[in-house]
Amino acid sequence: MKLTIKAGDFLQCEGEYSNGSLTLKTANHPSPGERIPLNRIKNITVANQEINRSLGGAIGWGMAGALVLGPLGLVAGLWLGGKEEQVTFIATLKDGRKLTAVADSRTFSKLNGRLHKTA
């Protein structure tokens, strides 16, 4: 599951969350990145949550709605489709490093839920 590093002690790039750890690029580990198990994270704080609309997703849902319900389905699909909730969060590691990252709500929920299980 992907996340985007925006600021902090890691390179601004795409990171990944899988199997209970983050893989993030650093100056010392630019490729494939430093693997950080969740038990090395001190805390995570939500900085912002917002819903973004994807034009491609909205069009896809609009077309599907039109096929099923006609013109009314097209409008409903365009209106409801393509929504994606993004979570911006700040993570502090036990070694003092920090990062600000953005992930979709599903990725953040899994990461945050798993973090609290390991704490």
Q: What features would you describe in this structure?
A:
- Helix content is 33%, strand content 43%.
- The mean pLDDT is 79.
- The chain has a domain of 83 residues: Pleckstrin-homology domain (PH domain)/Phosphotyrosine-binding domain (PTB) (PH-domain like).
- It is built from three helices and seven strands, in the order E-E-E-E-E-H-H-E-E-H.
- The chain is an alpha+beta fold.
- Helix 1 packs antiparallel against helix 2.
Q: Do you know the CATH topology of the domain at 2-51 and 86-118?
A: PH-domain like
- Name of the CATH class of the domain at 2-51 and 86-118: Mainly Beta
- The CATH superfamily of the domain at 2-51 and 86-118 bears the name Pleckstrin-homology domain (PH domain)/Phosphotyrosine-binding domain (PTB)
Provide the CATH architecture of the domain at 2-51 and 86-118: Roll
The helix-and-strand class reads alpha+beta
* Proportion of residues in helical segments: 25-40%
List keywords for this structure.
119 residues, 7-stranded antiparallel beta sheet, PH-domain like
Question: Could you give a quick summary of the protein structure above?
Answer:
With 119 residues, the protein is α+β, with helices and mostly antiparallel strands. The chain has a domain at 2-51 and 86-118: PH-domain like (Roll). It has three helices and seven strands.
List the topology elements:
Blueprint lengths: L1 E7 L5 E5 L2 E4 L9 E4 L3 E13 L1 H15 L1 H10 L2 E11 L4 E7 H14 L1
Antiparallel strand pairs: 1-2, 1-7, 2-3, 3-4, 5-6, 6-7
Helix pairs in contact: 1-2
